[in-house]
Automatic annotation (TrEMBL):
<dbReference type="InterPro" id="IPR043504">
    <property type="entry name" value="Peptidase_S1_PA_chymotrypsin"/>
</dbReference>
<dbReference type="GO" id="GO:0004252">
    <property type="term" value="F:serine-type endopeptidase activity"/>
</dbReference>
<comment type="function">
    <text>Peroxisomal protease that mediates both the removal of the leader peptide from proteins containing a PTS2 target sequence and processes several PTS1-containing proteins. Catalyzes the processing of PTS1-proteins involved in the peroxisomal beta-oxidation of fatty acids.</text>
</comment>
<dbReference type="Pfam" id="PF13365">
    <property type="entry name" value="Trypsin_2"/>
</dbReference>
<keyword id="KW-0378">Hydrolase</keyword>
<dbReference type="GO" id="GO:0005782">
    <property type="term" value="C:peroxisomal matrix"/>
</dbReference>
<comment type="similarity">
    <text>Belongs to the peptidase S1B family.</text>
</comment>
<protein>
    <recommendedName>
        <fullName>Peroxisomal leader peptide-processing protease</fullName>
        <ecNumber>3.4.21.-</ecNumber>
    </recommendedName>
</protein>
<dbReference type="GO" id="GO:0031998">
    <property type="term" value="P:regulation of fatty acid beta-oxidation"/>
</dbReference>
<keyword id="KW-0576">Peroxisome</keyword>
<keyword id="KW-0720">Serine protease</keyword>
<keyword id="KW-0645">Protease</keyword>
<dbReference type="GO" id="GO:0016485">
    <property type="term" value="P:protein processing"/>
</dbReference>
<dbReference type="InterPro" id="IPR009003">
    <property type="entry name" value="Peptidase_S1_PA"/>
</dbReference>
<dbReference type="InterPro" id="IPR039245">
    <property type="entry name" value="TYSND1/DEG15"/>
</dbReference>
Length: 445
């Protein structure tokens, strides 16, 4: 069915613009336009235009919907909530094929006043702009946001997330505009703000994803930063390349219940110094480091270390990739794509979660059991083009660390970690991600 529509008004969402300018700084190399649009200079003024919305009026009314669609306020949304994205990629070219294409993911992160900025790992393509982000709950479909940018990059690295603006903020700005302008459909637009369509979803109790996110920390070596996971109140697991060659690092814990400066405001992060007590050699295929904190972090649930793996199970990765500490850790969902074993023992885990720069060292969790499966080591890069693939990534299984961690916690003995430096040729071959060029064609990885 095709309908004609008339443009009623264009209006900005200043709250969205303010959050964007704080979150996505130009000097960090963010780009929101597609490869084709980069040829046109006007499209490079991304942050100046992303906060503008258009209101259209259909010339002919649609048939009554067979379901109830509510507008949900985004302030109470919880990271890790299951979301659906609906858009029409390339719809103007082939609407019979692409119209109302649905994608599923989770709420990866939020930012700004009352969560005006929404980030989801539900995969969208160019042409999805203006489509909806939905939460389905108790038999009702709730519209929570409008897709603003289905794809974006940081320093030429595809982030693998979709950017959306809270629909509640858009409606509030429509209401403000109605007070100042005489618009033909003013009464119809005013109905949006009556409250009968707006659901204020209060925050629920911390679900499994909240406990998972509480164990993720930001690790700053002074030269670079990445992610780590608290395995107990004083011990952090991360990657060797995150700590570099530092002996001391700063570990930042998000939402620690500690007040700043003796006042009533809570710190966004609590910073603790830590000592790098072990780091694998550069020659080791296992990219692992152990950090002992100078003080205990109370109230952090210790993750259960997995002892077995099931390819195809639902998983998630928590990390400070791309956005760093500006809005806390991000969560991305997917499946455990492959478990690579050598002599019957798992040595590498592959997932379809979105992983980008800064996620290294972050935890990989099983969604159903909540067990810690592994430590994120890398995503995939095509060395011939420089392109990265965030949804193809690799983690070190915690199964190979269990015995060494237990011995260190009980006896303070680090010698068992030294076995990570003695991995055989078969393990090294797996983690090289490419065979010798004289034997087979060289991989692009």
């Amino acid at each position: 069915m095709q309908c004609q529509a008339k443009l009623i008004m264009m209006l900005p969402c200043p709250e969205f613009q303010l959050a964007l300018s704080s979150l996505f700084r130009k000097e960090d190399g963010w780009v929101f336009s597609s490869e084709e649009e980069k040829e046109f200079g006007e499209f490079q003024k991304d942050l100046e235009h992303l906060h503008w919305c258009a209101v259209l009026k259909l010339q002919s009314p649609l048939p009554k919907a067979r379901y109830t669609l509510d507008v949900m306020d985004s302030a109470g949304l919880v990271k890790g909530s299951t979301l659906f994205a609906c858009g029409s990629p390339f719809g103007s070219l082939y609407p019979d094929i692409f119209l109302n294409t649905i994608s599923k993911g989770v709420l990866s992160n939020t930012a700004g006043e009352r969560n005006v900025v929404l980030l989801t790992d539900a995969r969208c393509l160019p042409g999805s702009e203006g489509g909806g982000i939905f939460l389905y709950e108790n038999g009702t479909l709730h519209l929570i946001g409008i897709i603003v940018a289905p794809l974006f990059w940081k320093v030429n690295e595809w982030v693998g997330l979709t950017l959306a603006c809270s629909i509640g903020h858009i409606i509030n700005n429509i209401m403000k505009a109605l007070r100042k302008a005489d618009i033909p459909v003013k009464s119809e637009l005013a109905a949006l703000g009556t409250g009968s369509h707006i659901v204020d979803r209060s925050k629920r109790g911390a679900g499994p994803s909240q406990h998972m996110m509480a164990s993720a920390v930001l690790v700053d070596s002074g030269q670079s930063w990445g992610t780590g996971v608290l395995v107990n109140a004083k011990l952090v697991l991360t990657c060797r390349h995150v700590v570099k060659h530092s002996s001391k690092v700063s570990v930042k814990i998000h939402n620690a219940k500690m007040k700043s400066g003796g006042g009533n405001a809570f710190k966004k992060f609590h910073t603790v110094r830590g000592e790098v007590v072990f780091s694998t050699r550069e020659s080791s295929p296992y990219d692992i480091a152990i950090i002992r904190l100078d003080e205990e972090i109370p109230g952090i649930p210790e993750p259960v270390l997995a002892s077995s793996y099931c390819a195809g199970e639902d998983v998630c990765i928590v990390g400070f990739g791309a956005l760093g500490e500006r809005c806390g850790p991000s969560i991305t969902s997917g499946v455990l794509s492959s478990v690579i074993s050598v002599d019957g023992d798992p040595v590498m885990l592959q997932t379809s979660c979105a992983v980008h720069g800064g996620s290294s060292g972050g935890p990989l969790f099983a969604l159903q059991s909540g067990e810690l499966l592994g430590i994120v080591a890398s995503n995939t890069r095509d060395n011939s083009t420089g392109a990265t693939y965030p949804h193809l990534n690799f983690s070190v299984p915690v199964a190979i660390l269990r015995a060494a961690l237990k011995r260190y916690v009980e006896f303070g003995d680090l010698r068992s970690f030294g076995e990570l430096n003695k991995a055989g040729l078969a393990v090294r071959d797996v983690w090289r991600l490419q065979r010798s060029p004289e034997n087979v064609f060289q991989s692009k990885l």
